[in-house]
Amino acid sequence: MSIIRYQPPQTLAFSGFDRLSNLRDELDTLFEMPFWSNFGRQSQLFSGWSPALDLYQNNDNVVARVELPGMRKEDIEISLQDGMLTIAGERKSETPEGEKAERTERYVGKFRRSVSLPTQVDANKVMANYRDGILTVTLPKAEEAKPKQIKVDVA
Questions:
Q1: What is the C-alpha R_g of the chain?
Q2: Which residues pair with 67 in a beta bridge?
Q3: How do 134-140 and 127-131 pair as beta strands?
Q4: SS3 state at 77
Q5: What is the extent of the structural domain holding 114?
Q6: Do 121 and 58 meet the contact criterion of CB atoms below 8 Å apart?
Q7: Is the pTM of this model over 0.70?
């Protein structure tokens, strides 16, 4: 027995469009599966892992947040050069010697993430904070990059 989705009477005339919509939904679901999502990023087999990174800005700062659970701050390197923020490091395996892993889903190994910054920043005032597995890098905008309000004089 197959289950057929209820279709209101007004859409029965365009059943072909509904079928295409269903097909699109099914394909979207297929490509959202974890197996396929790893192909969107670089494969761990060839290049290591790549932590998730969010970059946003406000009037004063550009802020980068990177998910690095299970890492020590000593294993994280941050550099800024020519408008490019680079975060690199290595997460080491925690499998005890002599034990065989039955299943491993956590990424281990070296990583390097580089992101081009949307504006000029003051490299001397950059701050980094690592807490609860989240690295937050605050990059203050350079004075010439900050928005300026211009006062209009009435003559």
A1: 24
A2: 134
A3: antiparallel
A4: strand
A5: 44-93+107-145
A6: no
A7: no
- Based on the domain organization, do 23 and 79 belong to the same domain? no
Residue 122: give its domain's CATH number.
2.60.40.790
CA distance linking residue 75 with residue 117, whole number of Å: 23
- Give the position of tokens 């070296």: 110
pLDDT per residue as tens, the chain (155 positions): 566 666 666 544 555 556 676 777 677 667 665 554 444 444 444 446 789 999 999 989 999 999 999 899 999 999 999 889 999 999 887 778 888 878 877 888 889 999 999 999 999 999 999 999 999 999 999 888 777 777 888 87
Q: Is residue 61, in this structure, part of any structural domain at all?
A: yes
* Residues 131, 4: Cα–Cα separation, whole Å: 49
Answer yes or no: is 78 within a domain: yes
Secondary structure in 3-state letters for 63-76: EEEEECCCCCHHHE
